[in-house]
Specification:
alpha/beta; Rossmann fold; 7-stranded mixed sheet; 6-stranded parallel sheet; globular
């Protein structure tokens, strides 16, 4: 179905496009030309594609891509169909997973997508495509925050906010794999879930102020932003690091960090071959697993966005292009 040829004779595909900003209703399933891989690129048949908070933020006009029309989606797991000039690391038929370059490489919410060969890694054989498609953006965010930026090591005390969320629940596992002591914040109904991922200690942010409840830590991972950035600084030991995945600093953040003798770093995830290989290794060895909240056929992308908009999802939402066609 995806290779239907229009009058041009070129293969086409189904994709989720938006022509304007707005709610989930602006997402439309349309038929568009299938892309061709350019230099150093590969064409991947999408078998699963994660949906992340950045997708619904971009849909609503709070992102980096400028004005629509465009197809969202950065996560992808699938099969290589064709390779462009100069690609030697993969061949057609290989199963791969990865994150398209953020932000301008979006486009995985479709039946096919093109991306740089080195944005991908071999899909771990231990998991299916839904699991692999849920992992890249959130896991790379956590890896680049905790490992590359904060340089956590064995015995570090790490506070992870929204520990049941898409990034948070993977960050807990990555921190544990690095030998850290992990404290998570979440509402109490989610505590058992996060403890099951390896968290050593849980704080119900609705019942207590985490600043008072947490003994000093070496690293804080903030996925919430706003006053969480400033308040989190007060939980750090001197020399500690706050990493926030919200790149807009709270007012006075750097000044307050300097006053307290700590570091505040604001991160945006980047396509990262070495990071994907490290993540793939954790997945293959059973130390990293995404919890799948729900899967949706590609045509139901708007329903996935509705679920995301609630902000109450534990784990990941995934689009499966060839499901229920």
């Amino acid at each position: 179905m995806s290779d239907t040829h229009e009058h041009t004779g070129h293969p086409t595909m189904l994709a989720i496009r938006q022509e304007e900003f707005g709610g989930p209703e602006v997402l439309r399933e349309v038929r568009v030309p299938r892309p061709e891989p350019g230099i150093s690129e590969i064409l991947v048949r999408v078998l699963a594609a994660g949906v992340n908070p950045t997708d619904w933020k971009h849909r609503a006009g709070r992102g980096f891509l400028g004005d629509p029309p465009y197809t969202l989606g950065w996560d992808v797991s699938g099969e290589v169909v064709a390779v462009g000039l100069g690609v030697t690391t993969v061949t057609p038929g290989d199963e791969v997973f990865g994150m398209l370059p953020y932000p301008h490489g979006a486009g995985s919410h479709a039946e096919y997508v093109v991306g740089p060969a080195r944005a991908f890694a071999p899909k771990p054989s231990a998991v299916d495509h839904v699991q692999a498609g849920a992992i890249p953006l959130a896991a790379l965010t956590a890896w680049q925050a905790l490992v590359d930026t904060a340089q956590i090591s064995e015995g570090d005390r790490v506070l992870i906010h929204a520990a049941a969320g898409g990034v948070g629940h993977l960050a807990v596992q990555i921190a544990k794999a690095r030998g850290a002591y992990v404290i998570g914040t979440a509402s109490s109904p989610k505590h058992d879930f996060v403890r099951g991922l390896g968290a050593d200690e849980m704080v119900d942010y609705r019942e207590v102020d985490f600043v008072d409840a947490v003994d000093p830590v070496d690293v804080v991972l903030d996925t919430i932003g706003g006053d969480y950035q400033l308040r989190s600084l007060r939980t750090l030991r001197p020399g500690g690091t706050l990493v926030s995945t919200l790149p807009r600093p709270a007012e006075g953040l750097q000044e307050e960090a300097e006053r307290l003798g700590v570091r505040a770093a604001l991160i945006l995830v980047e396509a990262d071959h070495a990071g994907m290989l490290a993540v793939a290794n954790l997945v293959e060895t059973g130390r990293l697993q995404a919890t799948i909240a729900e899967t949706f056929p590609l045509r139901d992308a708007a329903r996935a966005h509705e679920a995301g908009d609630t902000g109450r999802t534990s784990g990941k939402l995934v689009l499966v292009p060839n499901e229920n066609r």
